[in-house]
Amino acid sequence: MSLVNVANSLIYTSPDNLNYDVDRVLGIVGKMVRADLIYLYLYDNNTKAAVNTHQWYASGNSPIPGEYRRIPLKDIRGIINFHLKNEAVIMPPVPSGCESAALLLTFKKKKTRSVALYPLFWKGRCYGFVGCNQINSGGLPAEELNQILSAFAGMLIRAMVRCRKETLRARADKKYISLLKQTGARAGEGETDSRFDGNSREALQKAAVKNQDPDPSIKKGRFELDLTGIITGCNVSICQLSGYSREEIIGMPYTHLYRDRPAVYKVFKEVYKKGFPIRGVNIELLCKNGSTVQSELSAFPTYNKEDKITGFKGVLIG
């Protein structure tokens, strides 16, 4: 297998599969470079240690001893200084200041021929390193080894950062969903009732009654959409802003309420794509009589019990 296969594995991995895929590609790369031992360490700033999270070793070799699975950062400070400059450390020769770290990273294997350490460097920060030890095997020429491992380290850190962002986003989604369920109208739109089938105009109009403002004089229009973009509910204020009756608005495509239809379509498309609300978009409301009202639109996704987006809520301030 080639680096293309490795790249594809890391590009398409997910947070749930990341550990499995890292283990697998370490084995692929280890065989490519004829390594006896290839491993991944991540820096843990809380415990001030480099933690071994993944490793692969060739047949006839042994894994990293337990006492070296967590290395104090102070003991490899010389190597970290190189990595912070996004520079690999390939030994021998041992760079000045890295003598103790070089001895440490042979993991008690006195016959280790070479150690190559490549930083997981991303946007000015170093998150750890990929290491490759050659003990019994001859390995690849230094130039070829450098090309493969530096490319691999770059692929790996990109996959790790992306999966980290996806994990944080998923946590934020769950937090937002929980908040939305708990606070309902406090999020700005009132409760959602999506139990109607979407085909009956009368059913949609009855469901819309739930979204009336207690004070009809407030010009804060609220409406609900299904995934096809049809308005399924609204309050009195949006009728006052637009000049349409509730009967006219229910069942209308939401884009008909705006002068710049592509712009408002883009807003809801982005909400659906990312799963987050978008607030305070300046846009012109197109009234029934053809006039326009400068307004501010906020759009929110709505979810079912399986946390899947089932539609949208909109708040329009005129």
Please give the CATH class of the largest domain.
Alpha Beta
Q: How many domains is the backbone divided into?
A: 2
Structural class: alpha+beta
The succession of helices and strands, N to C, reads: HHEEEHEHEEHHEEHHHEEE
Low-confidence stretches: 182-218
Mean of residue pLDDT values: 81
Indicate the radius of gyration in whole angstroms. Answer: 29 Å
CATH fold type of the largest domain: Beta-Lactamase
Please count the beta strands (DSSP E, at least 2 residues each).
11
Principal-axis shape: elongated
Helix content: 25-40%
Strand order of the largest sheet: 3-2-1-6-5-4
Task: Please describe what this structure looks like.
The chain has 318 residues and is α+β, with helices and mostly antiparallel strands. It folds into two domains: 3-171, GAF domain (Beta-Lactamase, 2-Layer Sandwich), CATH 3.30.450; 188-317, 2-Layer Sandwich (Beta-Lactamase). Helix content is 35%, strand content 26%. It is built from nine helices and eleven strands. The chain has helices at residues 3-11, 18-32, 77-83, 99-104, 142-183, 201-208, 236-242, 246-249, 261-274, and strands at 37-44, 49-57, 70-72, 89-91, 114-122, 125-134, 220-226, 231-234, 278-286, 292-303, 309-317. It has a six-stranded antiparallel sheet with strand order 3-2-1-6-5-4. Strands 8-7-11-10-9 form a five-stranded antiparallel sheet. Strand 7 (220-226) and strand 8 form a beta hairpin. Helix 1 packs antiparallel against helix 2 (18-32) and helix 1 packs parallel to helix 5. The chain is elongated and about 85 Å long. 30% of the residues are buried.
